[in-house]
Design goal:
Oligomer: heterodimer
Shape of chain A: globular
Structural class of chain A: alpha/beta
Largest interface: A-B, 40 and 36 residues
Order of helices and strands of chain B: HEEHHHEEEHHEHEEHEEHEE
Radius of gyration of chain B: 64 Å
Shape of chain B: rod-shaped
Distance between the termini of chain A: 32 Å
Helix content of chain A: 40-55%
Largest sheet of chain A: 7 strands, mixed
Radius of gyration of chain A: 18 Å
Number of strands of chain A: 7
Chain lengths: 271, 437
Amino acid sequence: MASDVLRRNNVKTFGSGNRPMLFAHGFGCDQNMWRYVAPAFADDYRIVLFDYVGSGKSDLSAYDAERYSRLDGYAMDVLEVIHALDLRNVIFVGHSVSAMVGVLAANREPDRFARLIMIGPSPRYMNEAPDYAGGFERSDIEQLLETMDRNYVGWAHFLGPAIMKNADRPELGEELTQSFCSTDPVIARRFAEATFFSDNRSDLGDVQVPSLVLQCSDDMIAPNFVGEYVHRHTPQSTLRLMNATGHCPQMSAPEETIALIRGYLESDSGA
Amino acid sequence: MPDVAKARSASAILDALPCGVVSFEDDGTIVSINSTLSTMLGYTANEIEGRHVETLLGTAGRIFFQTHIYPITRLHGRAEELFVLLRHKNGADIGALINAARRDFGGRGVTDCAVMEVRERRKYEDALLRAKQAADAANTTLRLRTGELEQANRKLEDQAVALEQHQHQLEDQATELEIQSEQLLAANDELMARTLELEHARIAADDANRAKSQFLAVMSHELRTPLNAIGGYAQLIELGVHGPVTEEQREALDRIMRSQRHLLRLINDVLNLSRIEAGRVDYAIENVRISYVVAAVVPMVEPQVAAAGLTLESSVDHDLVAIADREKVQQVLINLLTNAVKFTPSGGTLKVFAERDEMTKQVCVSVADTGIGIQADKLKSVFEPFVQVDVGPTRRREGSGLGLAISRDLARGMRGDVLATSEEGVGSTFTLVLPSA
């Protein structure tokens, strides 16, 4: 059963440390997004990478539309990976939506987690008047979903002939898969719905694990207000504002990201 | 060519391209934009350069840029054929297809983006998307409809099967009915024939019965006249009218007279029966208080009861009143009691009692004995004329064997009946049933 989960979630482990460091990718990509950050911890930690079912090179046949219609389904992926490898004292690094997936998983089984590192977290992407500014209106999210749909059209249009040629050019399929982190655009659209319509604000107060919130500058997906909100409502949390801009500091500013994580883990409040 | 001239030349070429071109650094800062794109979005190049690339995008476009375009170009160096919504300066959304490639520019990443407005292409995509949505909707509808149809179909099939079964049943029933009809017709024919036969037989039987009754009546009369003569002359002789009578002669006369009386009683009975059967008996129906009848009957049979060494007990409720002919009731009870005396060994007990059956509204007057009883299979035949229960040669009783037959006929003539129950060795009970008042 354990090996089933490892195959299903395309789990990769490396590193010479004992303490496990589990990296969870966000919406729109896969474990590749950690390629500039994860190796930096390989000397001191046991690095665990994985793809959520429906993303990257996970087993698409294991995709269950019902289970993955809510972030709880993704949290179960995290816990199942943890159990499959029997990980304890996990340092969980979650990007974007995975920060909240980590919160849900840690609230279910706090004993398994030592730290949560949340990069660009948002417990609620939509604005909730009068006192919560998530950053988006429902119409924005609906337009995003339409964009996803359109890319499905383009993707299908683009991929159609390629798939037909796949038999004699298998590397083409591989290349296409890699060129689009989310393997299946229909699944990606559902992931978008699960992500952008979720509301995990009430889960923050239940967190029993010390956490680090990494907040980028000018992150339109998770604005400063949101990062501060997460910090304010999560017990034992530390907030670090980054120089990095955008939503993907692990790619745009890997050094800063590494330094902040390392600094946190090595400080008193960290390890 | 000097660098500046080279740059100008490159810029002129970019501006001349039919598609938009924009280059930005990893942090999103726009390095350059061609006039095709800036014009498309309502800006001048100067307004745009130095600003964040997200300026060119709507909100959804920014999310998609952050979650897809940026990671893909960062990780794979290029992104192809991605749809994104651009934002015109005036706020209008412009759909565009982008191809992006990231290159290293002096240690910094720069992404070059070719932007193609997809208004034209989008028409087809819209059509395709609508077709896809319509297809999805149709598919959903189809699935639902298919489900409904399948269900309806299953129902229809079930109904068809049920109907077929029903039809088979109906056919079977029709066949059966036809057969039955034929059978009924045949039976009817037969019945009519039988009815005719029976009618003939009944007429013949009635004729025969009437003839028998007439014969019996005539014969009884013809027999009684000489018998009366025999009895009368025997009495005269016994009285010494024709001279002294010796003891031996007297004994002979006794026998003659006993035999004459026996014969006379027999003939009377036969005559009675024949008259009853011939319907020549008249009934004087009235309210008959049973206790009175019993009170009148008991003294009449008491001598016989005492002579046979029996005890007679009677207990009849004064309230019981039957609708009957008083004399006939009396006659029946005498018959029943006489019978009981005949078949009850010395020391036995006879009981007369009566009760009202509320259900049938009948009065039941019973005579119970502690006699020899009657075998169950012979119980019915005791009502047949001339039948006496065979109790062995030593127990042969006198009597015509007509008493019960007469009693029952009389009872039936009063819309009643005589019933019998018996247990061998314990006793018998004969019950006269009459309509209650």
